[in-house]
Design a protein that fits this description.
The structure holds two protein chains of two kinds. Chain A is an all-alpha fold. Helix content of chain A is 80%, strand content 0%. Chain A has a domain of 185 residues. In chain B, 54% of the residues are buried. In chain B, helix 3 runs antiparallel to helix 4. Chain B starts with a helix and ends with a helix. Chain B is flat, with a radius of gyration of 17 Å. By secondary structure, chain B is mainly alpha-helical. Chain B has four helices and no strands. The chains are: A mainly alpha, B mainly alpha. Chains A and B meet through helix 1, helix 2, helix 3, helix 4 and helix 9 of A and helix 1, helix 2, helix 3 and helix 4 of B.
């Protein structure tokens, strides 16, 4: 009966195959352009399939967001000087990482609202009671990691952009003992993510994770010289991919939960 | 938990495929490949669409909206700039 869900899952698989074929073709000069087109086709397919999702009931914000984002992206991509392409890739990458952090945050808010609703239905108690029904340890850890890695990618990429563009000094900009400070902050964030997993309703911990990771992105890229930026961008590029996967872990859970709930409600 | 393990399988296998796919790429294609792969990482857009379009939490919808703007900048800009880079390559060869 719910064949739409199965069809859309299969179409997502097609999109994933298009991505893989696209990347494969990007690896050889004669097929590279086709490869990029195949990958963008996969993305279009993924978006269209998602728009048919029954969880999506209002399209105003989606339309506005897609129009604004596409315009900004298209204008930047068309206007950029050929020599300025590396820094533009850095900017795009930063926005991608930022988007994954936002998706994780959005899923968290959505899940918490769901938890409150569930708890309300059961006993009328506070949202805390409903949390375990929505988020397990893995999901909370994925949310924390996605927000952390996404935020680091966001500010790190913007600094890389500034250095390549010449807005920021290309040389080393660092506090004394910068490496130690960065290490301590990173260890601190891991600890905070652990805390967040134990106590997801503590919003202070949540915001501190956001703030500190934005800072880590700044402070890890600032000391690196401008000539090394391509390597930094490449690394941040893989970070944004990891942040997207982590957001995917969470998304899948909330998604199946709410699909299950809507099916149960109709049943 | 089951879903998590299943996703973990996909994550690990996809990482392996990624590694295999890019292991023998000529250096001239490194930048467009990075740029194209970066555009693909904007697939997080799919998650943003569902968040912005679902009801339940107004707060989440606006976060989703911001995520859509960020992700489409990455996706649209990323694919277009990659195409421009590759176009440039072709002209050079001719």
């Amino acid at each position: 009966m719910d064949w739409i869900i199965h069809v859309s899952q299969l179409l997502y698989l097609v999109a994933a195959i298009l991505f893989m074929m696209g990347i494969k073709r990007l690896g050889s000069p004669s097929t590279a352009r086709k490869g990029n087109q195949l990958a963008s086709l996969g993305m279009l397919l993924g978006v269209i399939v998602t728009l048919f999702d029954r969880q999506i009931v209002q399209f105003e914000l989606i339309l506005a967001g897609v129009v604004i984002g596409s315009l900004i992206g298209a204008v930047l991509a068309k206007k950029v000087q050929m020599t300025a392409m590396p820094e533009l890739v850095a900017v795009f990458n930063g926005f991608g990482g930022g988007a994954s952090a936002l998706v994780a945050w959005g899923e968290f808010s959505r899940g918490m609202a769901m938890a409150g609703e569930m708890a309300g239905q059961v006993s009328g108690q506070m949202a805390v009671q409903g949390v375990p029904a929505v988020f397990g340890v893995q999901e909370l850890a994925s949310i924390g990691l996605s927000i952390a890695i996404g935020s680091i990618t966001f500010t790190g990429s913007l600094i890389a952009f500034g250095k390549l563009k010449g807005i920021l000094p290309g040389g080393r900009v660092a506090l004394p003992g910068q490496n130690i400070i960065n290490l301590v902050l990173t260890a601190g964030v891991l600890g905070l993510i652990g805390w967040f997993v134990m106590d997801p309703t503590n919003s202070t911990v949540f915001w501190v994770i956001f703030g500190v990771t934005l800072l880590i992105g700044l402070m890890t890229v600032l000391p690196i010289g401008g000539a090394d930026m391509p390597v930094v961008i490449s690394l941040l590029n893989s970070y944004s991919g990891i942040a997207a996967s982590m957001a995917g872990f969470v998304w899948e859970t909330i998604y199946s939960l709410s699909v299950g709930r809507s099916l149960a409600q109709r049943g | 938990m089951e879903a998590f393990i299943f996703n973990l399988f996909i994550f690990v296998l996809a990482a392996y495929i990624g590694l295999e796919l890019i292991s023998k790429v000529p250096p001239t294609l490194h930048t467009p490949l990075m740029s194209g792969a970066n555009a693909i990482s904007g697939i997080t857009l799919v998650g943003a669409l569902v968040i912005a379009g679902s009801t339940g939490s107004v707060w989440a919808q606006w976060i989703g909206f911001a995520a859509i703007v960020f992700a489409t900048i990455n996706v649209v800009g990323g694919f277009m700039v990659t195409d421009r880079m590759l176009e440039m390559f072709k002209k050079k060869e001719d």
